[in-house]
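User: tokens in, sequence out, please.
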């Protein structure tokens, strides 16, 4: 077998694993890998900060379901990637971060930019490894892709000492292939028990988490729901698993990113079949109220997720798609199924009764009106990106999504600044799609330098900013974690001119102060993004101290608009 440079073998592995674009920043300790990349067809985008590279790889992976790749040199490049690794781990996103490293004979001498990045990254990765022998490199990369994809997906870090990168190894890419990723099949008796419980319930709900989208199981989710006629709720990470205009869509339950009719439906349910969901604290709130007298079936590909928050009445270890396929088959064999007409009608009634207003025409603009305009202007094929803060809560409450992988949100980690690099990754994954980032004025300041990457590589997308000119949370009371506090933060009366910030990076923007200006501004931004092939900002000035609906319990969410009186039917909330 002929010898080739070690890094050329690694690049061949990357290409065969479906990597057609990588994001990173070159440095001396990673140059052999970059030399090999230059000989390949893999496109590379040079970022302005290594954390930005991880979020780009993250957005790319969320959109196409493949394993994203971020690259950095030694020392601080790797430590800068930790936030991105944590974000990917928290949301089960498969990415691989590749770092350069000082030569192996210098690692014990405190050499320049030599840091034990493997140990630093270990808590926020599925696997962190240093390649110690050149002949290991392609095999370690094969295993890294397998681990990133297997079970609950997640991030891997591979550290490459400079002397290892420079060696030659025997490798023939023509006889190589990705390692198989096993499907986690459900145990049949547990599928039958789950079906027994589902059919015996009077008011069941299916709860679709991010695992349904990651497992490419959304089509089967709809088939199962329609066959057994059971309403479907989604978590924040599961948004898009079922179209929000589907007759069986039952909204979102939670103490922040939620619809109040979703909470009302949940409180009346007597059984919840949760698939690929973590029972995160912003979803459950107070556990005593959340659990009530309801029975829970928890299906997850990762065994240690079962019972982590509370013990379910039935746990099933399975890939989401494999479980739904088995459940569908079992339900078809049962023949006659319960009549759920009344329960489905009740959920529909709650939806029609308990919606929140979004038609405000006041000045300053109210945030719900912004999302009304977004929903009306952009079509179902649009890819949305949003991050963390009040605008994420408003987005979860008001923004409509109709397709899986079209709503990308950092759910558990919530790093500020995630939106711009993630939007670049989404656009690289779907170059012909329309991509829209919904951002806040504070988060916009983090990683804003990655706008230069989009400008350099002609990557157009629209940014819609909800600007309340905060420098933090102002007078937020009972934010959902049992805390009561008031923070009075002084802010600049003028605020940052974010349009000028865009222009400084070679992009463009427009400020909107009236609700009747939003639609025209969105139309302008779409045309401008296409004309310039660069990001375009629509900065919407919203009311400074408007708040979101939130609380500590799904039965006690503080609303800021009048709530219609309803009478719970057989409510289990007490």
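Assistant: Sequence out:
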């Amino acid at each position: 077998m002929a010898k080739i440079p070690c890094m050329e073998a690694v690049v061949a592995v990357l290409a065969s694993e479906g990597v057609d674009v990588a994001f990173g920043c070159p440095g001396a300790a990673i140059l052999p890998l970059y030399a090999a990349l230059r000989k390949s067809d893999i496109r590379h985008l040079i970022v302005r900060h290594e954390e930005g590279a991880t979020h780009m790889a993250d957005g790319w992976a969320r959109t196409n379901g493949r394993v994203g790749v971020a690259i950095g040199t030694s020392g601080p490049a790797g430590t800068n990637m930790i936030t991105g690794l944590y974000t990917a781990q928290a949301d089960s996103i498969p990415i691989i971060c590749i770092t350069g490293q000082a030569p192996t004979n210098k690692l014990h001498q405190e050499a320049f930019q030599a840091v034990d990045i493997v140990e630093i990254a270990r808590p926020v990765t599925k696997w962190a490894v240093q390649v110690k022998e050149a002949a290991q490199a392609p095999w370690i990369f094969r295993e890294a892709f397998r681990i990133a994809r297997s079970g609950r997906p997640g991030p891997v870090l591979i550290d490459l000492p400079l002397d290892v990168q420079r060696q030659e190894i025997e490798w023939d890419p023509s006889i190589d292939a990705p390692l198989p990723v096993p499907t986690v099949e459900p145990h049949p008796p547990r599928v039958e028990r789950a079906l027994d419980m589902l059919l015996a319930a009077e008011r069941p709900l299916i709860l679709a988490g991010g695992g349904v989208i990651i497992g490419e199981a959304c089509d089967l989710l709809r088939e199962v729901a329609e066959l057994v006629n059971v309403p479907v709720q989604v978590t924040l990470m599961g948004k898009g698993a079922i179209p929000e205009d589907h007759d069986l869509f039952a909204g979102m339950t939670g103490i922040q990113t939620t619809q109040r009719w979703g909470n009302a439906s949940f409180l009346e349910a007597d059984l919840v079949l949760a698939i690929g969901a973590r029972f995160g604290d912003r979803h459950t709130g107070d556990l005593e109220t959340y659990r009530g007298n309801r029975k829970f079936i928890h299906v997850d590909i990762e065994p240690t997720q079962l019972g982590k928050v509370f013990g379910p009445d039935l746990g099933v270890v399975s890939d989401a798609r494999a479980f739904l396929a088995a459940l569908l088959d079992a339900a078809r064999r049962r023949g006659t199924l319960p009549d759920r007409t009344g329960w489905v009608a009740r959920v529909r009634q709650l939806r029609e009764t308990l919606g929140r207003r979004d038609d405000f025409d006041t000045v300053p603009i109210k945030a719900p009106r912004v999302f009304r305009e977004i929903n009306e202007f952009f079509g179902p094929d649009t890819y949305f990106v949003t991050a963390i803060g009040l605008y994420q809560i408003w987005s979860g409450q008001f923004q409509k999504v109709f397709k899986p992988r079209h709503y990308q949100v950092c759910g558990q980690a919530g790093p500020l600044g995630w939106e711009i690099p993630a939007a670049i990754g989404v656009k690289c994954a779907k170059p012909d799609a329309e991509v829209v980032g919904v951002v806040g004025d504070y988060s916009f300041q983090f990683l804003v330098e990655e706008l230069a990457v989009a400008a350099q590589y002609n990557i157009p997308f629209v940014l819609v900013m909800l600007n309340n000119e905060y420098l933090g949370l102002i007078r937020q009371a009972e934010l959902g974690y049992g805390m009561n506090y008031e923070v009075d933060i002084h802010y600049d009366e003028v605020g940052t001119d974010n349009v000028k910030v865009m222009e400084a990076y070679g992009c463009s923007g427009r400020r909107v102060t009236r609700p009747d200006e939003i639609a025209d501004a969105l139309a302008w931004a779409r045309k401008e993004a296409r004309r310039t092939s660069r990001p375009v900002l629509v900065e919407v000035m919203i009311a400074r101290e408007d708040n979101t609906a939130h609380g500590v319990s799904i039965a006690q969410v503080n609303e800021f608009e009048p709530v219609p009186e309803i009478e719970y039917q057989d409510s289990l909330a007490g």
